[in-house]
Write a structure and sequence with these properties.
The chain is about 0% helix and about 30% strand. The chain contains no helices and 21 strands. The model has no long low-confidence stretch (mean pLDDT about 95). By secondary structure, the chain is mainly beta. The protein has one domain: Hexapeptide repeat proteins (UDP N-Acetylglucosamine Acyltransferase, domain 1, 3 Solenoid). The radius of gyration is 16 Å and the shape is globular. It has an eight-stranded mixed beta sheet, with no helix packed on it. Strands 2-5-8-11-14-17 form a six-stranded parallel beta sheet, with no helix packed on it. A four-stranded parallel beta sheet has the order 1-4-7-10, with no helix packed on it. Bound molecules: coenzyme A.
Length: about 170
């Protein structure tokens, strides 16, 4: 038996870009808003209604699902996975958006590679260690690591976060 699969093309559709955004393809971006001076690395998907603030860098292989808002001057490492469906009813929501939950990331938040972010709020000035799993809201500036992510080090209000140099 030789069947033809249904193939949908990835690409960049209905995206609102600020000035001076740099993208590296292949990408699957649709219905989202990307602020000025942002960078998005390859093999990343950003879904409808996601909003990304100015100067935020999103490294390759990340998945940013509907319901996520990311602030300005953030760094999203390689392979960061956001989640909007907790499988609350013992399985996937199967497209029932009423079961999807939101995630809000503040400004100056750095998320290490391979972190997983469940539907939570993360305040300004937070660092998430590589490979961490964030399961609860983070409302205090600091460095958080582990699964589940826990506070490792508090950061003073005056600390300068995310001086990540632009590689543009
Ligand atoms: C979380 C992080 C910022 C901490 O850096 P740091 O303050 O220099 O921490 P240290 O290396 O001194 O480690 C301190 C402790 O935290 C632990 N730790 C560090 N990073 C960790 C992580 N991601 N997950 C779990 N534990 C971690 C260390 O094992 C160490 O534990 P110990 O005190 O029991 O020995 C850093 O380790 C990290 O994960 N950065 C992410 C980098 C990244 O993903 N960049 C993407 C672009 S390449």
């Amino acid at each position: 038996m030789l069947n033809e699969p249904i193939i949908q093309a990835s690409g960049i559709k209905n995206v609102r870009f600020g000035e001076n955004v740099k993208l590296v393809q292949p990408l699957n971006l649709y219905g989202c808003t990307i602020g000025k001076d942002c960078f998005v690395g390859p093999f990343t998907e950003i879904q409808a209604n996601v909003v990304v603030g100015e100067r935020t860098r999103i490294q390759s292989h990340s998945f940013i699902c509907e319901g996520v808002t990311i602030g300005s001057d953030c760094f999203i490492g390689h392979g960061v996975m956001f989640i909007n469906d907790r499988f609350k009813d013992a399985g996937p929501a199967c497209g029932d958006k009423s079961k999807w939950e939101k995630t809000t990331i503040g400004n100056n938040v750095s998320i290490g590679s391979n972190a997983t972010i469940l539907p939570v709020t993360i305040c300004n000035g937070v660092v998430i260690g590589a490979g961490s799993v964030v399961t609860k809201d983070i409302l205090e500036r600091g460095v958080y690591v582990g699964n589940p992510a826990r506070l490792k080090t508090s950061l003073p209000l005056t600390s300068t976060l995310n001086p990540h140099p632009s590689t543009k």
